[in-house]
Design goal:
DNA replication; eight-stranded mixed β-sheet; EC 6.5.1.1; 21 strands; 22 helices; 43% helix
Length: 625
């Protein structure tokens, strides 16, 4: 496949005004005859701005200085001149496009680039290491730039910088796959199609044909996502679909070494409401550390973060603990790892534990801040998929295969249907320095990639009016006034994530909680992903000075949730959206992707509980009067 064709699609996607238009363009790309089984996975990865799924650990990342050097090498410009153009345009991709345009006018190139050539060069860049690797990376990038047309040069430059500026999320790619294979699905699933048709006829739905097509695509999209949740490699799934059609989905199975997307917990504000929702349940301590998914295959151990990143090299003591104390030939377990004070047995706070996330000095760090892994679930043992089993059975299996003590243990827990027992256990966990508790439905299966009331968390921070902190995606920033103008950033515009619509909806403008150093750091970080206009997957009634792609996540606290005519979060016809009152930044969530931000549904639920609490408190006041 010619890379120019792919770059042409990317140019149109970048200019798309809506997510629906992006999906349609991606569907057209995936239907192209040249996007065959041999190349489709490479196309998917490059659309994601990478060369492989995150769990494979490949990093093409090149620094701006090295990319500037490659542009200077291939253009004849001095490095300083390239830097000046970058300062002016704010996007090295545009600098490369401008330089390539002048080269074309001078007839200085070119042989045509293929997708395969671009992909292979970046794969070699990612694998290059050791003495002379910088020179090798420079040579491989320069080779592509020498052959690139202006439009190709723009994207060849952006890929290694991790700044594609396309706004393509995994849900949009899954929607595009559903568009491509919807006709085959319709022919195969006649019974499901007849059921949808009958429902629409009964409801006398207007535009029945359009709604029918949408419902069919949505049903297929759910099937694709089910497979993605247990096999987080969209490139591989797209390849199987190209090779075998919808039968390819049947070949996607749970595989040690390929991470499962983690199940997520809902939240409730009291033990009474938890018991009312679940009845008898298991309650375990909620640890504030690294959520890790551990895969064991014989003597090989792989460790993945909640973002499905391969973090195996960072935790050597966990690897040894699993090899020694996990009694299974193959297994996939999940747990929370925390730094432990070996003298007192106490757990360090997350601010200390996070210091273990590093690429250098790992052995020394593991000696100074040893981790303890508390397992809380198991998804596979010796080739058997345990995810469909009730949690009570999975827990018994977990306790059987974990030899407790040392680095590896299981979470402390109780089984109860009494709110008083839940409260007592909650208090005990807080006294031990834990974050709170998680209550689990004893009969629930493991629901990968979803947030359901199978798990419910209760944290100590639920004592304020806003029952918990929220995690928000940064979608833009304001340059600030007064003294803050010298940092280039005065406040962040942040958004919740609407998973149903795959978009980010503004909810807060945050200027409190940022130190002067952080203001400068965030301006430097965000300018690399700034957008020339509002990204297609972003909705906001408030316009920042600079829009950015939704990439970074921050933890935010606030006094309460209020209604707002300005913000888009939860906005419906005739009803304003939601906003945070007096928001303040708590921390940066480097362990989360933007799509893992607090959802619009969660915000809506928190607002309803907050309203109910105020009504209850008002009623108490009336009674006392």
């Amino acid at each position: 496949m010619e890379f120019g064709k792919l770059a042409g699609y990317w140019e149109r996607i970048e200019a798309a005004a809506s997510r629906l238009e992006m999906t349609s363009l991606l569907g057209g790309l995936l239907r192209e005859r040249e996007t065959d089984a041999a190349v489709v996975s490479k196309v998917i990865y490059l659309c994601q701005g990478q060369i492989a799924p995150g769990f494979k650990g490949y990093d093409i990342g090149l620094g701006e200085k090295l990319v500037e050097e490659a542009l200077a090498m291939t253009s004849g410009y001095a490095r300083e001149e390239v830097g000046k153009r970058f300062q002016k345009l704010g996007d090295l991709g545009l600098v490369a496009q401008e330089i390539a345009e002048k080269k074309r006018q001078q007839s200085l190139f070119r042989e045509k680039l293929s997708v395969e050539k671009v992909y292979d060069n970046f794969l070699r860049i990612a694998k290059a290491s050791g003495h002379g690797s910088q020179e090798q990376k420079l040579k491989l990038l320069a080779e592509l730039l020498n052959s690139a047309s202006p439009l190709e040069a723009k994207f060849v430059t952006r890929i290694p910088l991790g700044a594609m500026r396309l706004g393509i999320g995994d849900p949009t790619l899954m929607d595009a796959l559903a568009v491509v294979y919807s006709k085959e699905f319709l022919a195969k699933e006649k019974r499901a199609a007849e059921k949808i048709e009958a429902e629409l006829k009964e409801k006398k739905e207007e535009k029945r044909g359009e709604e029918f097509e949408r419902r069919v695509r949505q049903l297929l999209r759910e099937r694709i996502e089910e497979k993605y949740n247990i096999h987080s490699d969209l490139g591989d799934i797209a390849r199987l679909l190209k090779e075998k059609g919808l039968k390819g989905l049947d070949a996607v199975e749970l595989t040690p070494g390929v991470p499962i997307r983690p199940t997520l917990a809902e939240r409730l504000p009291s033990a009474g409401e938890i018991v009312e929702k679940l009845g008898e349940c298991m309650v375990e301590g909620k640890f504030d550390g690294f959520r890790l998914q551990v895969h064991k295959r014989e003597d090989e151990v792989s460790i993945f973060s909640r973002r499905s990143e391969n973090v195996t090299p960072m935790f050597p003591e966990v690897i040894e603990g699993v090899k020694t104390h996990l009694k299974a030939r193959t297994a996939i377990i999940e747990g929370e790892a925390l730094a432990v004070n070996e003298e007192t047995g106490e757990f360090f706070p997350f601010q200390v534990t996070i210091q273990r996330k590093r690429k250098h000095g790992i052995e020394r760090a593991s000696e100074e801040l040893p981790l303890k892994l508390f397992a809380f679930d198991v998804m596979m043992v010796d080739g058997k998929n345990l995810m469909p089993l009730p949690f009570r059975e999975r827990r018994k299996t977990l306790e059987r295969i974990v030899e407790r003590g040392g680095v590896l243990d299981v979470t402390p827990m109780i089984v109860t249907k009494e709110p008083e027992a839940v409260d007592a256990f909650f208090t005990r966990c807080i006294e031990q320095g834990l974050e709170g508790i998680v209550a689990k439905d004893l009969d629930a299966k493991y629901i990968a990639g979803a947030r359901k009331f199978a798990w419910i968390k209760l944290k100590r921070s639920y004592k304020g009016e806003l029952q918990d902190s929220v995690d928000l995606a940064v979608i833009g920033y304001f340059k600030g006034k007064g003294i803050r103008t010298r940092f280039g950033l005065g406040a962040l515009l942040a958004a919740a994530y609407n998973g149903e619509r795959d978009c980010f909806e503004s909810i807060a403008k945050i200027g409190t909680g940022l130190s002067e150093a952080q203001l400068a750091e965030w301006e430097e970080r965000l300018k690399k992903i700034k957008a020339n206009r509002k990204p297609a997957r972003v909705e906001s009634g408030l316009e920042p000075d600079v829009w950015t792609e939704p990439v970074h996540v921050i933890e935010v606290r606030a006094d309460e949730i209020t209604r707002s005519p300005v913000h888009a979060c939860g906005r419906e016809a005739g009803k304003p959206g939601y906003a945070l009152r007096f928001p303040r930044l708590v921390s940066f969530r480097t362990d989360k992707k933007a799509e893992e931000a607090t959802s619009t549904k969660e915000i809506r639920d928190m607002f309803a509980r907050q309203k109910a609490q105020k009504t209850q408190e008002s009623g108490k006041g009336d009674d006392s009067a």
